[in-house]
């Protein structure tokens, strides 16, 4: 479910570059998230991974849409600045960032186990909105498109014992909002309203629309059949 922030196309250079025949498209994921990488792999796309190293604390805003989109852009730009495309090479850089809007607060990754526990205690039986910002840069055509996706998450009535066991696994400490739907935390989510990929950290329907804005197709990035047959590897 795309949020009410339209995809924005900004030309980074003056004019456009002519198309180059037989270009080699490659997607560079500006994120260390194994979940985002696995989601792309399951969709038949094998991304390269470069971690941006962006200091997320530098962005100050009380608007979750603005925060996740700004961080996604900073990550994509930081990685793009390190790439030097060769002739015939057309790299696309994808930056993503997720935050949970809950009870008037913006929740990224928890500070520690105690923080994760407090959050889960507040979230149980309630709902929040998970926002994921996407920034896709085409280095060859010197263009950038951006958008935000939002999905409403309804949490189950988790017991104190379940919260303690979940926090002890370490999973809530590594993700925005202190929960996942594609891991152990999926058992504690009653239902969602919107694209589940948004909660994982990357909306494939939204990525498809961003590619269309760049006059590309998601099928241009397919490197292997999906959903079965490929080998999904973890990050080194």
UniProtKB/TrEMBL annotation:
Predominant cellular place of this UniProt entry's protein: cytoplasm
Active site as annotated: 97 (proton acceptor)
Co-factor(s): a divalent metal cation
Subcellular location: Cytoplasm
Pfam families registered for this protein in UniProt: Maf (PF02545)
Example of a GO cellular component annotation carried by this entry: cytoplasm
Enzyme class: hydrolase
Alphabetical GO biological process terms: nucleotide metabolic process
Entry's EC annotation: 3.6.1.9
Keyword annotations of the record: Cytoplasm, Hydrolase, Nucleotide metabolism
Function: Nucleoside triphosphate pyrophosphatase. May have a dual role in cell division arrest and in preventing the incorporation of modified nucleotides into cellular nucleic acids.
Protein name as catalogued: Nucleoside triphosphate pyrophosphatase
Lineage, top ranks: Bacteria, Bacillati, Actinomycetota, Actinomycetes, Micromonosporales
